[in-house]
Amino acid sequence: GAITPVANLEPVELAGTTVKRASLHNADQIEKLDLRIGDTVFVEKGGEIIPKVIAVDLDKRTSDAVPTRYITHCPECQTELIRLEGEAKHYCPNYLGCQPQVIGRIEHYISRKAMDIDGLGGETVALLVKEGLIKDYSDLYDLTIEEVLPLERMAQKSAENLINGITQSKHVPFERVLFALGIRYVGETVAKKLAKHYKTIDALKSASLENLIAIDEIGERIAESVTQFFANEHNLYSIEKLRSHGVQLQLSEDILANQTNKLNGDIFVVSGVFESVSRNELKKLIEDNGGKVGSSISSKTNFLIAGDKMGPSKRQKAENLQIPIISEQAFLKRLK
Ligand SMILES: [Zn+2]
Question: N or C: which terminus of the chain carries fewer CB neighbours within 10 A?
């Protein structure tokens, strides 16, 4: 629901493309630039898709230029905008009724790293919402082939694929479902961490702020966002609906069965090539057994697991810091 103000420009050629719009970031930025309607501006094209306005050419400003006034209401749903303390952007608080927000959440839910629903794209989601067929992601599971067939550019085959893709997503593991829910600040990594710690959505749902913050790498901002998400009636309703359709809301039995706390929070750095497991499998074994994977050797590292062809500088560093270097076999033995 964040609002990003955009300047409409007279089209100008910039680095091989025609630029018609440029980002103004937020209300503070507009004020800082003292931007007026009709101003001539300097535009910079960076890595983002949309270029940004970086300065105003005051020499070219006419004496009757009108100051810009920041919008007070959402351009999509006309709800009054709010600005949270300490945040630069204005938000539309109409969580449930603001269509671009609704569509955005469903698009996130179906995205590749989330539920990865085959046969369903952003355009179809927008159509489904506009036609009133779905109001949130949990409604996807109620859709039938007959309902989606009349949609624009939908044929029997694509309708079948769509419904199939939605059904298949019921097998997506809990940590990805948790990411798909679209809890603010809960990205893939945090979702994994929370899934592993709480194991079920019900345990996470009833976790207190203090309880969440006590988890390694979960800060106040994330913890607050999680508790807010589960305090929202509508979100709870959606979750119950997902549950009734068989979406995975807890870690699967075999994942749980393979998890231990044998490594007791020790930090392992993995280096080189291994014989019986791949490097990724090794990392997974560490995490599944209560250890942590470090990206580089530091004084915090507890063990270096050395494979074949490990770089000599790594060994040297571990030796300097007196970090025990263990073999793949020795590590696997610890898990037995
Ligand atoms: Zn709105």
Answer: C
Query: From the CA of 119, how far away is ligand 1's center (Å)?
Result: 28
Ligand 1 center from residue 308 Cα (angstroms) = 57
Say how many Å lie between the CA of residue 130 and the centre of ligand 1.
15
**pLDDT tens-digit readout, 209-236:** 999 999 988 999 999 999 999 999 999 9
Separation of CA 230 and ligand 1 centre (Å): 22
The first and second tokens of residue 283, run together, are: 């990392």
Predicted complex ipTM: 0.99
Counted domains in the chain: 4
Examine the domain organization and report whether 121 and 144 are in the same domain: yes
Confidence of residue 73 (pLDDT cuts 50, 70, 90): very high
Q: Which of 137, 171, 205 is the last residue of a domain?
A: 171
Q: 47 pLDDT exceeds 80?
A: no
Range of the domain at 239: 174-254
Phi, psi of 327 (to 5 degrees): -85, 165
What is the 99 CA–ligand 1 centroid distance (Å)?
7
Strand partners, 52: 23, 44
pLDDT confidence of residue 181: 97
- Same domain for 54 and 82, yes or no, is yes
pLDDT band at residue 76 under the 50/70/90 scheme: very high
Cα(89) to ligand 1 centroid in Å equals 14
Using CA atoms, how far apart are residues 216 and 206, in angstroms rounded to an integer?
Answer: 18
Residue at which a domain ends, from 57, 73, 93: 93
Q: Exposed, middle or buried, 17 (CB in 10 Å: 0-12/13-18/19+)?
A: exposed
**210: in domain:** yes
Residue 262 domain flag = no
